[in-house]
Amino acid sequence: MAEGELPAVLILDIGGTHGVLEDLAALLKKHFHLITMKEFLGNKEEMRKKIQSVFVFECRPTIDRELLESLPNLKVIANSGVGVDHLDLKMISSFGVKVTNTPQAVADPTADIGMALMLASARRLVEGSVLNFLGPSYFFGTPRFCCERDDLSESISGM
Q1: Cα distance from N-terminal residue to C-terminal residue, the chain
Q2: pLDDT for residue 136
Q3: In the chain, which end has fewer C-beta atoms inside a 10 angstrom radius, N or C?
Q4: DSSP per-residue string spanning 122-148
Q5: Average pLDDT over residues 12-32
Q6: Strands of 98-100's sheet, edge to edge?
Q7: Domain named D-isomer specific 2-hydroxyacid dehydrogenase catalytic: which ranges (predicted)?
Q8: Spatial distance between the Cα atoms of 54 and 72, rounded to a whole number of angstroms
Q9: Sign (positive/negative) of CA torsion 42, 45, 47, 51?
């Protein structure tokens, strides 16, 4: 790597169904020279010595022995996801390559979704929403899904 040249990172692709999101790719391009798997396979001899890192996005590209053997200057595999179960850590470390991960990256959003699902289930919000938008006729009669109360001020009609 020449002085002033950005370190090269191998990614599967930019955009599309399995590629790195375009916004994320724009951020990566500020610090790295991105090489897609198609570019790498098209010119393996030239690219293999430039690549120092692999960015794994949604378990892609697949890290196998053949890929590791073809990248002599590989130093790190950066995984952007929860867990590293899809990576053979023992094999990767045998090549002297480090693996990074983002633990706790989605802990708060996961907790938020979990709480929302529990509240929606406990308060039957889905049925309430259907009743609100489609009316009682959707249920073929007036449903009894809340609690039977005469006083509407004790119940929640919506959020």
Answers
A1: 57
A2: 63
A3: C
A4: HHTHHHHHHHHHH-GGGGTS----S--
A5: 93
A6: 33-36, 8-11, 51-57, 76-80, 98-100
A7: 22-113
A8: 12
A9: positive
Three-state secondary-structure class, residue 98: strand
The domain limits of the chain are: 8-103, 104-144
DSSP letter, residue 155: S
CA-based nearest residue to 71, from 55, 59, 58:
55
Q: How far is CA 36 from the centre of its chain?
A: 19
The reported pTM is 0.67
Residue with tokens 């919000």: 125
The 10s digit of each residue's pLDDT in 69-119 is 999 999 999 998 778 999 999 999 999 999 998 777 777 888 888 998 999
Q: Is 34 helix (H, G, I), strand (E, B) or coil?
A: strand
The pLDDT-based confidence of 133 (bands split at 50, 70, 90) is confident
In CATH, 8-103 is 3.40.50.720: yes
